[in-house]
């Protein structure tokens, strides 16, 4: 925690869209947003249904400890960087 949002490249069911994921990484770099890179082997997101429908999909995850427990913890700075990354992404066009 404290090292920025996680850009997930693959999870238990999905290889996320390479072009969209690369674009997300470029956006983070251009806006000086620290990110981590991850592979979640024991987790699958709802992105699986989107990819099956042909929708380019990428996953930004918020680093957390003790997920799904009464004591789940996140870093406020990670949360703010995650929001900044999403805002920055929404203001760009994807280039190949």
Topology, element by element:
Elements: E1 6-11, H1 18-30, E2 36-40, H2 47-52, E3 59-61, E4 64-65, E5 73-74, H3 76-90
Parallel strand pairs: 1-2
Antiparallel strand pairs: 1-3, 4-5
Structure description:
The structure is a single chain. The protein is of the alpha+beta class. The protein has one domain: Orthogonal Bundle (DNA polymerase, domain 1). Helices cover 35% and strands 19% of the residues. It is built from 3 helices and 5 strands; from the N terminus they run βαβαβββα. The strands form 2 sheets. A 3-stranded mixed β-sheet has the order 2-1-3, with helices on one face. Strand 4 and strand 5 form a beta hairpin. The longest helix has 15 residues. The chain is globular.
Summarize the structure.
With 96 residues, the chain is α+β, with helices and mostly antiparallel strands.
Distance between the termini: 31 Å
Radius of gyration: 13 Å
Supply the CATH class: Mainly Alpha
Shape: globular
Q: Say how many strands there are.
A: 5
Number of helices: 3
Strand order of the largest sheet: 2-1-3
Strand content: 15-25%
What CATH calls the topology is DNA polymerase, domain 1
- Listing every helix as H and every strand as E from the N terminus to the C terminus, the arrangement reads EHEHEEEH
Q: Mean pLDDT score, rounded?
A: 89
Largest sheet: 3 strands, mixed
Helix fraction bin? 25-40%
Instruction: Tell me what the CATH architecture is.
Output: Orthogonal Bundle
Domain tally: 1
What are the segments in which pLDDT stays under 50 over at least 5 consecutive residues? none
Overall structural class, as computed from helix and strand content, comes to alpha+beta
């Amino acid at each position: 925690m404290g090292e920025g949002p996680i850009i997930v490249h693959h999870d238990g069911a999905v290889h996320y869209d390479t072009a969209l994921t690369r674009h997300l990484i470029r956006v983070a770099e251009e806006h000086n947003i620290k990110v981590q890179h991850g592979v979640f082997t024991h987790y699958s997101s709802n992105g699986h249904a989107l990819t099956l429908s042909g929708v380019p999909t990428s996953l930004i995850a918020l680093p957390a400890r003790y997920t799904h427990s009464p004591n789940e913890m996140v870093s406020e700075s990670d949360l703010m960087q995650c929001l900044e990354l999403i805002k920055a992404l929404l203001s760009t066009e994807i280039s190949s």
